[in-house]
Amino acid sequence: MKHTLAAFALMLVAVGLFAVSAKVVDADGPATVRLKSGKSEPVSIGKSYNTGDSIRTGKNGLVELSQEGLTIRVGPSTVFTLLEKELGGKPKGVLAVTLGSVKVKYDRLTGSEPLIQSVGCIAGVRGTELTVWAGTDGASQFIVDSGLVSVEAFGKTVELGPDESVVVLNGEQPGDKFTVHRDQIDHSKWDAGRVEALLADPLVALAGMRERLAYYAANISEYSTRYRDVNSRLKAERERAVKVGEEKGSDAVKEYEREFVTPLVLENASLVLNYRYFGLAALSMRRFVGSRMYLMLKVKFAATPEDLVWTLFAEQFAAFVAEFEKTIMPVLVDADF
Amino acid sequence: MRVKHVLQVAGVALALLAVLFGCSFGVTIQGRIEQFLEDLNATSRDQLYLNLDPALTDYNSLKDPLYWDGWFPLVGGGTSYFLVNQVTDDSGVTTAIVTADISGPATFLGPKALVIGLVKDGLNWMIHTITLDAIDVVPYNP
Question: Are B70 and B51 in contact (CB under 8 A)?
Answer without folding.
Answer: no
